[in-house]
């Protein structure tokens, strides 16, 4: 199939390159000219293991990038993978996605003589005009990949309809575009392999025609794997996405709540969690306590779900508490540090800047409140991350960034560990170069040993 993907960030680029790898012809559209140039040069605009190889293999062949929405009407379907950030009150900021949706609709309407859909036949040659539709006309399928609260889908439908307009079919006006949802569950750091081997696919459609299109698109994946497919309506599909993220975030917050209690009791939360993870009903995954959850998804999605629920008349108590616990973890880490060192005027190393290992993404990284707290204490902060230095530099341009962990630790009065990069587990004599070997570990990655003043956040 010929697929257009609007938005070439973490999700859109992974989707575009992976669909090309499945054999589809993919046009990636982004408003950022640098992103488009990078893709067309066969390079990845973001750090994601395996992505560079896929792009290098397919760029210029099955994968092309452009800033021009004109490719949309000639494609069989269009994915929307534009960002959906939070407003300052936590609610969903739909501005970018609604604009992209309307522009997609306009491109469909302006699709020209040979039709609004790759195989659907002619529908229109301009928005709002008197248009004679071919008998076999099908609308263009626009699939929302971005994460959008169920109530917000109404706004996207309106934006799509406003852009695309209707054509005159045999039985009267017919929409030129139909909306579906196909939420994404990939994790950063393992995005490419998550796409190829997902836990589930969720198709939210309003017609059997749209469902058939999605089944056709994912045919190879469905044959290669025994991935379960959830077929439902667009709103339920998006609620599944939010419920998934809400559940996982709340699980980590519960683990942190229990972990904080363990710490006060002088117990090791990891020993406790390893044991409860043996219960199939709990599962061993997402039981790692520490400095909390960050990233571009959990914080904003939980906030958007809370805001949308409140708007609908329900205040979700447990989700509110999950956020409260999460917000408290960086503070607890700093309080542990205070017990061992007065860092005013002292060099303090922050090991790990990315919100998790395997990515250069620092959105809502726990490193941000930790660095803020260190600055409040008057510390001289030096940060180190294997790949996220440049992205964090945008947030903290004046911070000192070390080229490696050893340099960051040299002469430091304390070190705090924020990201569980594997390489931190191998650190040993590097700590001996510290002015005072105080290590506060927010991820249980550094080995506790003789000669270190070591504190784990929950152990
Ligand atoms: N990052 C993840 O791990 C992840 C996983 C699952 C779902 N999601 C959801 O997917 C969506 C995208 O997230 P992301 O992290 O890839 O975002 P991102 O910020 O990395 O990328 C968004 C891209 O869209 C482009 N863009 C903005 N407006 C545009 C327009 N009008 N036309 C074309 N391109 C436009 C931007 O230039 C940017 O390159 C969000 O809704 C997010 O919640 C993200
Ligand atoms: O036991 C754990 C597991 C994770 N985390 C933290 O939780 C955050 C999120 O981690 P993870 O879920 O692995 O990464 P994301 O890439 O944010 O992926 C989540 O968010 C995506 C965007 O919605 C979804 O697609 C994924 O399914 C969902 O796992 C990170 O800060 C981790 O450090 C913990 O603190 N303890």
Automatic annotation (TrEMBL):
SUPFAM superfamilies: 6-phosphogluconate dehydrogenase C-terminal domain-like, NAD(P)-binding Rossmann-fold domains, UDP-glucose/GDP-mannose dehydrogenase C-terminal domain. This is UDP-glucose 6-dehydrogenase. Pathway: Nucleotide-sugar biosynthesis; UDP-alpha-D-glucuronate biosynthesis; UDP-alpha-D-glucuronate from UDP-alpha-D-glucose: step 1/1. NAD(+) binds at residues 30, 84, 147, 188, 300, 363. It catalyses: UDP-alpha-D-glucose + 2 NAD(+) + H2O = UDP-alpha-D-glucuronate + 2 NADH + 3 H(+). Residues 349-448 form the UDP-glucose/GDP-mannose dehydrogenase C-terminal domain. InterPro entries: 6-PGluconate_DH-like_C_sf (IPR008927), NAD(P)-bd_dom_sf (IPR036291), UDP-Glc/GDP-Man (IPR017476), UDP-Glc/GDP-Man_DH_C (IPR014027), UDP-Glc/GDP-Man_DH_C_sf (IPR036220), UDP-Glc/GDP-Man_DH_dimer (IPR014026), UDP-Glc/GDP-Man_DH_N (IPR001732), UDPGDh_AglM (IPR054886). The active site is at residue 297.
């Amino acid at each position: 199939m010929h697929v257009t993907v609007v938005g070439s960030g973490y999700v859109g680029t992974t989707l575009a390159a992976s669909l090309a790898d499945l054999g589809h012809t993919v046009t990636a559209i982004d408003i950022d000219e640098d992103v488009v140039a990078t893709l067309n040069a066969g390079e990845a605009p973001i750090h994601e293991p395996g992505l560079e190889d896929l792009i290098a293999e397919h760029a210029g062949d099955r994968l092309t990038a452009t800033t021009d929405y004109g490719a949309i009407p000639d494609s069989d379907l269009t994915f929307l993978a534009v960002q959906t950030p939070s407003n300052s009150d936590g609610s969903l900021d739909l501005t970018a996605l609604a604009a992209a949706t309307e522009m997609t609709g306009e491109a469909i309407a302006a699709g020209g003589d040979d039709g609004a859909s790759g195989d659907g036949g002619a529908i229109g040659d301009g928005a709002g005009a008197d248009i004679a539709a071919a008998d076999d006309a099908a609308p263009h399928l626009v699939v929302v990949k971005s994460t959008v609260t169920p109530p917000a889908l109404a706004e996207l439908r309106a934006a799509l309809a406003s852009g695309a307009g209707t054509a005159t079919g045999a039985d009267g006006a017919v929409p030129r575009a139909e909306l579906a949802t196909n939420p994404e569950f990939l994790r950063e750091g393992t995005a490419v392999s998550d796409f190829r081997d997902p836990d589930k696919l969720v198709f939210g459609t309003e017609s059997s025609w749209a469902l058939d299109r999605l089944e056709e698109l994912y045919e190879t994946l469905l044959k290669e794997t025994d991935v379960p497919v959830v077929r439902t309506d667009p709103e339920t599909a998006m609620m599944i996405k939010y419920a998934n993220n809400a559940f996982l975030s709340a699980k980590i917050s519960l683990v942190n709540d229990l972990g904080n209690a363990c710490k006060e009791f002088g117990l090791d939360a990891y020993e406790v969690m390893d044991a409860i993870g043996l219960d199939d009903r709990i599962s061993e995954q997402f039981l790692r306590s520490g400095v909390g959850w960050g990233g571009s998804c959990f914080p904003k999605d939980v906030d958007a779900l809370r805001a949308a629920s409140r708007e609908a008349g329900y205040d979700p108590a447990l989700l509110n508490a999950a956020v409260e616990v999460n917000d408290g973890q960086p503070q607890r880490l700093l309080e542990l540090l205070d017990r061992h060192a007065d860092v005013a005027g002292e060099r303090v190393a922050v090991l790990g800047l990315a919100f998790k290992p395997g990515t250069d993404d620092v959105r809502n990284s726990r490193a941000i409140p930790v660095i803020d707290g260190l600055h409040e204490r008057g510390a001289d902060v030096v940060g180190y991350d294997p790949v996220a230095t440049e992205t964090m530099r945008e947030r903290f341009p004046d911070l000192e960034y070390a080229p490696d962990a050893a340099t960051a630790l040299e002469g430091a009065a304390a070190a705090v560990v924020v990201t569980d990069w594997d390489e931190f587990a191998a650190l040993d004599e590097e700590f001996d170069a510290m002015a005072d070997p105080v290590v506060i570990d927010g991820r249980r990655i550094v080995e506790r040993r003789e000669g270190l003043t070591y504190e784990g956040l929950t152990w």
